[in-house]
Hints:
- The chain is α/β, with parallel strands linked by helices.
- The chain has helices at residues 17-33, 81-93, 110-122, and strands at 63-66, 72-74, 77-79, 99-105, 127-133.
- 29% of the residues lie in helices and 16% in strands.
- The chain starts with 16 loop residues before the first helix and ends in a 14-residue tail after the last strand.
Amino acid sequence: MSMTLGNKKFKSDINITPYIDILLVLLIIFMTVTPLKQHEHPVRVPQPAPANQPKEVKPDSVIVDMDLDHSIKLNQKPITLPELETTLTEVFRRRAVKNLFIRGDSALPYGDVFVLLDIAKRSGVGDIALLEMKNNNAPPETSKSKR
């Protein structure tokens, strides 16, 4: 006597519906609790520098100024164009930081400023920054309104 039991197969799939329900409940809890959390790091907004204080130049900065009359100054000392190249070469030969600032009036032609750039590169300058010189001799602009 033999008995056949039939074809029973076991279902080995995991029912993930309860896991998704738990996940959604946790997500809702975290979403509601997060805005209520107090942060312990104070936020500091940078304050603008006072406009009435003159900006101090570091004593180790090298600044070349060129005015509208093509007069050149090296750190506020007048200098001629041929002397500029030899002086800059000597200064940057002894320095580890080879940064130079060129400050000129915005009305200067770019070709005149390019001469200073060329001299600076031949002198061994690494980085050059161009600064705009405010023209203090210019008359203030007045606005006229038509009525």
